[in-house]
Amino acid sequence: MASRAAGSYPAVPEPLAVPGVDTHTHLDICTGARGPLKAGEPAPEVDPSEGEEFPSLDWFRETAFAAGITRIVQIGCEMGAARWTAATVEAEAAAGRDWMLGGAAIHPNEAPRLAAAGLLEESLTEIEQLCAGERMRVVGETGLDYFRTDGDGLAAQEESFRAHIEIAKRLGIALQIHDREAHADVLRILREVGAPERTVFHCFSGDVEMARECAERGYYMSFAGNITFKNADGLRHAAAIVPPELLLSETDAPFLTPVPHRGKPGGPYLTALTIRKLAEVRDTTEEEIARLVTENAGRVFGSWDR
Ligand SMILES: [Zn+2]
Ligand SMILES: [Zn+2]
Description:
Blueprint: E1 20-25, H1 27-30, H2 57-66, E2 69-76, H3 79-94, E3 100-104, H4 111-116, H5 120-131, E4 136-145, H6 153-171, E5 174-180, H7 183-193, E6 199-201, H8 208-217, E7 220-223, H9 233-241, E8 247-249, H10 271-281, H11 286-301
Parallel strand pairs: 1-2, 2-3, 3-4, 4-5, 5-6, 6-7, 7-8
Helix pairs in contact: 3-5, 5-6, 8-9, 10-11
């Protein structure tokens, strides 16, 4: 992702006929926002470099609306981003813009870094406080990532995942899971401790068998732009069999930009392309998928209306 100025983004696709929803996006990263850090906290892994240009929050809202994406869930998953998210969803709502709800957690790859700094426990306490905000409706993203964390980091990652599950249950809000190459252990831990009532696998990456298991347990499955990737047949087969009442859509922007724009930075507006692909894979209309994911998102995150 060499440049992230507005000019480097893909064009806005034709708008959806029925409004859709992006249930997982990182507008802090998209806008180059640096949330406030406390002494000793590690700098975010995706850190804007000096002088780098980014589109504004207004640009992301306008492009989202232009594509028919009128509701988003902003996710902050390191401490600065978590603070930025809690403040920004409040500020947007106070200004009469009710397009944005929020969620916060310590990302599974971030937990070992905070643990190494001796800050994991107090950070978890703060995540719970931030997630108690009225516009904050999900604890996430948390989970396990065996792709980018290994060795000594794994214990802190699991401790952090278990703590986040408890936070979601105490607050009575949804849980959003990041599961990268860790399907079996994520499912095992959720069974051991008992999953929150509304549990979502963000950027679902399992196969048909995993989708069946999640469906049996009533977990939501949220699909991102990688469902459009050429080599993602397994994922498309999984998306085809998700029960309608458990289906969600997202971007994970600025990452996982859908085909034909793969490799470029993305924004919530590109959820329109993912919704179209879901319609194709499930042999239905984009209107039907847009309606479905909006209804499901309302059940998981509550109302966007103030
Ligand atoms: Zn993730
Ligand atoms: Zn994410």
